[in-house]
Amino acid sequence: MDQTAYFEQMRQKRRSEILETARRMILDQGLFSFSMQGLAQTLDVSTVTLYKYYKNSIAIIEDLYQATTGTLFQFPDLFPTQKKPEDLVLEYISLILDDMICRREDFRLVMTLGLYIYPADPVTEILPAEPFLQYLQETLPPEVCALSRDNSDFLSFATDACLSFMQSVATQSKPDLRQMKKQLLLSLSLWF
Asked: Per-residue pLDDT for 148 more than 80?
């Protein structure tokens, strides 16, 4: 490895360390307690060192937001063809809700940072209904989307329910979220 590649690798490692520490600070102390000075103190570096990596705290918040949202809702292809389409939809939505529960801190962070980045309407900006609906349509198997066209409002209803659930992730406990998930899946299953 040449010297330039080594220094770039070390720079990326330090940036990751900065983002992870910022993440922890924001989740533990809140966004409005976050500052470059506090971050530098926690990392045991000078603020001058931090400014070599990020021009200000907003740049850190935006990078952290992008890094976190980029990992949400990534599932393998889990759709065996022998299941009924409506069962596939419910199974997939269940996976999405489980992901929200398991990665509660990530969703909480996205909601918190979204309030700062998109103060007018963070939920609509963070995960707008139209792209989420499109995401479901692109990800679900064709037979499920065909079923949804027959029941045109189902995917819209499911999208709104998932977005509402996402809003609750930041404020509810895991047991409460699991109970909400059961109720949501029950209401979705009644659609069929």
From this structure: no
Question: Count H helices, E strands: the chain?
Answer: 11, 0
Structure tokens at 187: 């209401």
Instruction: Check residue 32 and report its DSSP letter.
Output: G
Its pTM stands at: 0.74
Q: Which of 166 and 36 is assigned the larger pLDDT? A: 36
User: Which residues, 6 or more positions from 157, have their beta carbon under 8 angstroms from its beta carbon?
Assistant: 188, 191
Radius of gyration of the chain from its Cα atoms, rounded to whole angstroms: 20
Domain regions of the chain by residue span: 3-69, 85-189
CATH number of 3-69: 1.10.10.60
Query: CB neighbours (10 Å) of residue 99?
Result: 16
Diameter over CA atoms, the chain: 62
How far does CA 119 lie from the centroid of its chain? 17
